[in-house]
Specification:
Layout: H1 3-23, H2 31-55, E1 64-72, E2 78-84, H3 88-105, H4 113-132, H5 136-147, H6 149-157, E3 161-162, E4 167-168, H7 170-201, H8 209-217, H9 223-240, H10 249-256, H11 259-284, H12 286-312, H13 317-337, H14 341-372, H15 388-401, H16 408-423, H17 425-450, H18 466-484, H19 487-500
Antiparallel strand pairs: 1-2, 3-4
């Protein structure tokens, strides 16, 4: 292991966190400096995330780039243990890409710019931490670091939505998000304490995911214990993953959040929930997971169908994408619940694919809203003639969302379907129907918003800025690259999947 491998994961967590702390010393009267500094910090993290993914040796598998820092010895035995496997590596890369794009897109933030980027970088650091730590105590710490800034980012810099008959305030969206996610965090913390207490009773108190996983493999956790602890993680992490019926915070949070925050919220933050179910629930509680997976796949199927049907009935662009995210996270949950190598690999690939496509959608919606101050698809029409590049980028993201062959969404959903057909045939058929409904609302959205006669009121608007075009173009290239050649990602993912499923 070279010097970079020893410090890579620590640096990818520390750089955005240190950047957030240093940003506090930038004068509040120099907003451009705060933005430029955040760009520099997020670019460094992007380079680090690419290097980390590239350094992962899929031939060797297992946890790599490991490093331990003792924090508290006896009696608590808490260690900052770092390492990534084939599941975490692509998600670290995803966070690096989306964080950099979100910072670039946030050039329009004028109010308390410095404070905004402090919170945004802290959020990014928290996400990296969840993906990279191998200790339950620090996993929970970074999980909260990723979740808590969302309240201020939405409540201070978000926007309220007037539906005519009522006003959906940004404060409402922020508070609803926080209440749901804090509720989920309570369940997660109870589950972590249960595992720690059980390991203490066995004479080896530890928060280490690796040590707890070895205990689980050796049959040291009874089936009864696993059966009541696993649902704590399933629901606790499931809340953040948008698991039905605990999903309602997500669309409201999407709508209220500023563009950059929406990109991180849908693109990365929701993936923490699904990742937590895999890393903690499935690895540490395999018998409990196997017993509860029929329930989880039913809920995932409801996610797919309910999210698609709800998206059809929406008129607000952000609400459509918000419910679309609920539906697509349903595919992730279904893939996890199959306990099949193809299905689980498809779920992880779907996390990466959906993260890029939904971040691209929100970036383009932000560009549209900045120029029209409207998100109602019944009012927006013919934007293709005035915002050609924006329309093209959004169309690519939409086509990836409905699973068009040649784009990343197709291969990910296909793998989930294969896994589901092998394990839960009736539910797999419902999921395919949900995919068909996705095509309905996506194509309707594209037809209403971008095509047709241009309304004279939009004759004055301009296309996306150079920064928005750069971010959008990069995300489009990723969607096409993964759709045409998913092998680089799948080689890594498959190694992580094989390791997780060893306990089943």
């Amino acid at each position: 292991m070279n010097a970079f491998d020893q410090v890579a994961l620590f640096m990818v967590i520390a750089v955005p966190l240190l950047g957030a702390l240093l940003s506090m010393f930038i004068s509040k009267d120099r907003p451009k400096d705060a933005w430029h500094f955040a760009i520099m910090v997020s670019f460094i993290t992007l380079v680090l995330s690419i290097a980390i993914f590239a350094r992962y040796d899929y031939g060797a598998g297992g946890f790599q780039l490991t490093r331990e820092f003792n924090w508290l010895d006896h009696p608590l035995n808490i260690t900052l243990s770092l390492g990534i496997d084939g599941i975490a590596a692509p998600l670290v890369l995803l966070n690096g890409i989306v964080l950099f794009g979100a910072v670039l897109i946030s050039q329009t933030i004028k109010h308390r710019t410095r404070d905004f980027f402090v919170l945004l970088l802290a959020l990014g650091s928290g996400v990296f931490g969840v993906f990279a730590v191998l200790d339950l105590f620090f996993l929970f710490f970074f999980y909260e670091l990723a979740v808590l800034p969302m309240y201020l980012l939405i409540g201070v810099w978000g926007s309220s939505t007037d539906f005519g008959s009522f006003l959906r305030t940004k404060e409402y969206g922020a508070m609803k998000l926080m209440m749901f996610l804090v509720g989920g965090s309570v369940l997660i913390w109870i589950g972590i304490l249960a595992l720690y207490t059980r390991s203490s009773d066995l004479g080896a108190p530890t928060f280490s995911i690796i040590q707890l996983g070895q205990m689980a493999q050796n049959g040291m956790f009874s089936e009864t214990f696993q059966n009541w602890v696993f649902p704590l993680f399933m629901i606790g992490f499931g809340v953040l993953a948008g698991l039905w019926p605990f999903h309602t915070w997500s669309p409201d949070g999407h709508v209220a959040a500023p563009t950059g925050v929406s990109m991180l919220h849908a693109g990365v933050l929701m993936k923490l929930g699904a990742f937590g179910i895999i890393r903690v629930g499935m690895v540490l509680l395999p018998e409990g997971a196997a017993n509860w997976m029929p329930v989880l796949i039913v809920l995932g199927t409801v996610n797919v169908v309910y999210g698609s049907i709800s998206a059809i009935s929406q008129k607000d662009l952000k609400y459509i994408i918000g419910y679309s995210s609920v539906s697509h996270m349903g595919y992730v949950i279904m893939g996890i619940a199959t306990l099949h190598p193809v299905g689980l690999a498809g779920a992880v690939l779907q996390m990466f694919s959906h993260g890029i496509m939904t971040a691209l959608m929100f970036a383009m919606v932000g560009a549209i809203y900045d120029r029209t101050h409207i998100r109602d698809i019944t009012v927006l029409n013919g934007l293709m003639k005035r915002m050609g590049v924006t329309s093209f980028f959004f169309a690519i993201a939409g086509l990836a969302s409905l699973g068009l062959p040649g784009l990343s969404g197709f291969i990910a959903e296909f793998m989930v379907f294969v896994g589901a057909f092998r394990t839960y045939l009736p539910l797999a058929i419902l999921a395919v129907i949900g995919a068909a409904i996705t095509a309905v609302y996506i194509l309707r959205l594209l037809a209403r918003t971008f095509f047709g006669e241009t309304d004279p009121m939009w004759e004055h608007i301009t296309d996306a800025s150079p920064v928005e075009k750069t971010v959008g173009g990069a995300f489009v290239l990723i969607l096409i690259f993964v759709g045409v050649w998913p092998a680089p990602l799948l080689r890594v993912i498959n190694m992580g999947v094989d390791s997780v499923l060893q306990g089943f």
